[in-house]
Amino acid sequence: MSRIKTLQDLFRRYRRPGDFVIAFLSFAFALFLAANLPFQTTWVARTKPVAQPAFWPAVAIGFMVLFSTLHMIGALVSERIPGRLAEVIQWLKALEYVAWFMAYVMLVPWLGYLPSTLLFTVTLTYRLGYRGWRWSALALLFGVVVVVLFKTLLHVKIPGGAAYELLPGAALRSFFLTYL
């Protein structure tokens, strides 16, 4: 009989340490979108409300404001659970990988897609704690597979690196710019 729940059990609120922070951020973002809605969409004269370009974005943002407000109220009236700062610090640690990716994106125009990808995969593998020549070889193999997949098989247009201009011979330079 433990599988049967009452209505109160179904709507009981189980707060987590970072719940208030998420509630506040989603509420602030919803208000930001609502404040910018008039500048991003238009209402056309003599058009049905449902056919208006601004109607569905307004409905979506209206519901975002409503539900983020309810989430914020729920977070404010719930008992405080210790550990909010530790939870937020854990979220902020994830921003390190955003920085790694941004560094990779900034290196590609300088070094080229292949060298940047190889450097990125090996460095990130080492950063994640996988050390040794086997992990480095696996990271290099993964980098080569990614470059071959995207540049050669999928024909994704990624600009060649400035370092490719230093290669001797037009044929080698052209090969690197096209395939690597």
UniProtKB/TrEMBL annotation:
Return the InterPro entries for the record: DUF1468
The membrane-spanning stretches of this chain are 20-39, 54-77, 97-115, 135-154
Q: Which keywords does the record carry?
A: Membrane, Transmembrane, Transmembrane helix
May I ask which residue range the UniProt record assigns to the signal sequence? none
* Domain DUF1468 span(s) in chain numbering: 24-159
Please identify the protein, giving its name as recorded.
Tripartite tricarboxylate transporter TctB family protein
The organism is Acidimangrovimonas pyrenivorans
Taxonomic lineage is: Bacteria, Pseudomonadati, Pseudomonadota, Alphaproteobacteria, Rhodobacterales
